[in-house]
Amino acid sequence: MVEDRFSLQWQQLLSHERARKSHGSSSDFDGRNPFEKDYHRIILSASFRRLQDKTQVFPLDQSDFVRTRLTHSLEVSSLAKSLGEQATALLRRRGVANAPDSIQQKEIADLLLCSGLLHDIGNPPFGHYGETTIRDWYRNHLSTMLFRDKPLSYWLTPQMHADLLNFEGNAQAIRLVSKLHYLVDEHGMNLSFGLLNTLMKYPVSSLMIDPDSADTRYHKMGYFYAEEKLFKAISHATGTAQKWRGEDPLVDRKQLAAKENTLDKTSAAKQLSFAPDAGRIRVCRHPLTYLLEAADDISYRTADLEDASRKGKITYGQLLSYLLDSVRVIRLHDDTLKHTYFELVTELETRLEQARAKRIQNPELYAIQNWTILLQNHMIRSVTETFADRYESIMQGRYLYDLFYENLAGLLLDVLGDIAYDFVFSSQSIVQLEVASDAIIGGPLDKFVPACLHYDTELDQKPVDKRLMSLISDNYRANYEREADGKEEGEKLYLRLLLVNDYICGMTDRFARDLYYKFNGIY
What we know:
Elements: H1 10-13, H2 34-43, H3 46-49, H4 69-94, H5 102-118, H6 127-141, E1 146-147, E2 150-151, H7 152-155, H8 158-165, H9 169-180, H10 193-199, H11 228-238, E3 241-243, H12 253-261, H13 268-274, E4 281-283, H14 287-310, H15 316-325, H16 327-330, H17 335-357, H18 363-389, H19 391-395, H20 408-425, H21 428-453, H22 463-470, H23 474-484, H24 489-505, H25 509-519
Antiparallel strand pairs: 1-2, 3-4
């Protein structure tokens, strides 16, 4: 039960606060709002430029037309801005209470433009499969690899342990932009708190993850223990930290207790006191996170279809047959939704007829490309209406789902996901490259984690381990030294493991592959 009727406020949600106040005073000629300034910091950063050599679907692909993380991020950025503009305009047309004013509308659009650029910036090489490789590596080694004659897991608190087992690119993104990208000082890009909060899709710690929860907040973690103080500062500045009387009804305390029992209990009680949902504080999602997430999902689902068509993974005929025979749609009980869906499928056939009438060289590819644009428009409209319809519960921090829940956009997203799974992600070339990425990412972990164990301790380091640690960016090592200063042995070890993750996540696909070749004497 909430102590007072809770409602998020745009004045706080669009917080201009930063970890460090900007040096000097703004020029009278600088009419930019804080999020426009953030935009320029992002596009000028090396971290953003590296996205041009990180995979979207087809790792290490040589084709110019296949999307990279950079082109995907640009598309998400544009789409997120459009969603923000349309959603806020719809709220104002409806005369909704607590709708953003005209100045806030502009800031919302600019913030979403930035968040789209950054949403994948923390991903390791080879995308989401790279994340899985990192998680699996720690799951296989934390209990067997030794430091001072004891397993690594012995030295880690439950939250530190869970951070590594549930490694997440979204959490790494917060770490990268707030610490690792050394622009002026230890605050990284020093971005606005409103922007950073939007990037935190899952405002919970690794101890609170519940993939089966009805509440999407709990599906993954949003930050590492190392960034917990920053997380608290951001959530309080933006007003997303809610005060509750008693237990949060959405948190299953029994599940948390079960997680405690599976981990080293050296400081379990201490860690529970830090959990953001423990006690009287519960952090809800930033409203703009819903729009960012929707932009990402719409972008990559439609892009996957277009890229797969260009790569010959799916033909026009296969696509049309799949759409007409989709079991997911056939079982649908909503006749109105089903009718709209089949109208859209008919539009695919219409576009092929138009392409043939225009004597376009590749009419089937043309039809698919134009049809995906039509799908995007319908999904944008559907998502925008859902945001407006659910606005009150979103602003009260009570909305549990994403913006695809039981609407046309959700149906289209699911069908496109089925197509991607059957025709793209199960293809032999993708599977081969994913297996290769397991070695390319797992290989450096095999070398750098043992090398980091004696780093910054009184223990002797092997000469080869010293050389390996010297390969890690000076900025990253300097960040470790700042964070580790005065910390206990276990936390220092945790920070060294994060240091290795920082190095690997900063690699492009090509750099990771070339490093693997060098380590294995392949030239």
